[in-house]
Amino acid sequence: MKSSENERKITGCLTYGAYTRIPLTQTMDRPIFSDRTSAGDFLARKILETGKIFDVVLGLARGGVPVAVPVAKSLHIPLFPMIARKIGAPWEKELALGALSENGGLYWNR
């Protein structure tokens, strides 16, 4: 399959649980999901298909909570929003060097 510059593919995966991953592919001109809720609906369906049982859903504020809500509802388990503050690189606005959690924990990316 031949692709132009505008159709360059972005690949990645949604991760849940310790080792479970869902492969994703996206083209530059089309988002994978229309919004975060639809992403959560998709993730919930995929988790249900595995038959695995989970006790809680953790949603990282701000963007992760709208994804986590439909997952928690579909699995009928509690949702715990987590608040963290990104520690950004001074030379690159979007680059996260680590995070500071709401309870004071400091985590550095490796």
TrEMBL record:
Organism of origin: Leptospirillum ferriphilum
Phosphoribosyltransferase domain residues: 40-85
Gene3D superfamilies: 3.40.50.2020, PRTase-like
Pfam family, one: Pribosyltran
Taxonomy, superkingdom: Bacteria
Protein known as: Phosphoribosyltransferase domain-containing protein
Lineage: Bacteria, Pseudomonadati, Nitrospirota, Nitrospiria, Nitrospirales
